[in-house]
Amino acid sequence: MGRYTGPKGRVNRRLGAIVFENAGAIRALERRNTPPGMAERRRKLSAYGTAHFEKQKIKYYYGLREAQLRKYFEMARAKKGNTGEFLLLTCERRLDNIVRRAGFTKSRLQARQGIVHRHFQLNGHTVDIPSILVKPGDVITLRNRPNVKELYADLVESASLPSVDWLAVDRSGFEIRVMALPTATDISLPVEIGLVVALMSR
């Protein structure tokens, strides 16, 4: 799932949500909000089908494979409290999600690609793992290379994302500072997480 390279507009249409943020995929959903191949209205899903769709939203949105999602789920289930909330908050703490939420890229796929290509540093160390979970006090910066900074300058300048309370973003200095852990109000994906928890608890 993390390396999905198929038609992103079809995924948005099938799930009825913007899980891929590139312009073409968004337009595909806006033009036709029925699943691919369907000329009539969406067929009513079973309870299992609905839960499966909600689970797919999480996997595509955050770029997770089944094993990664299962790992996060087991981490969340081991904690006291709301398992679904902990699951989504773990996803929000991924490095690629942080880069995207800070407005350094136009999508999570682009953020993941930049990290894999070693464009970013975490606490002064160059990293290439998009799934790193950040913690308060962590600092994410661009590598101090002219070609890398030139590549991201236009992206950062044109970013129109709302500010994130738990991140301090210095766009001119290409720096993201994690001020706190995200809370339930910071979750960026609208999803029926209770259905996903019930499905994965079987």
Query: Which series of helices and strands comes N to C?
Result: HHHHHHHEEEHEEH
- Provide mean pLDDT, rounded: 84
Our measurement of the CA-to-CA distance between the termini, rounded to an integer number of angstroms, reads 22 Å
**What is the correct CATH architecture of the largest domain?**
Orthogonal Bundle
Compute the number of structural domains.
2
Unreliable sequence segments: none
Structural class: alpha+beta
Q: Which topology of the largest domain does CATH recognise? A: Ribosomal Protein S4 Delta 41, Chain A, domain 1
| Fraction of residues in β-strands | 5-15%
Rough outline: globular
In spatial order, strands of the major sheet run 2-1-3-5-4
Organism: Planctopirus ephydatiae
InterPro entries: Ribosomal_uS4, Ribosomal_uS4_bac-type, Ribosomal_uS4_N, S4_RNA-bd, S4_RNA-bd_sf
Protein name: Small ribosomal subunit protein uS4
Subunit structure: Part of the 30S ribosomal subunit. Contacts protein S5. The interaction surface between S4 and S5 is involved in control of translational fidelity.
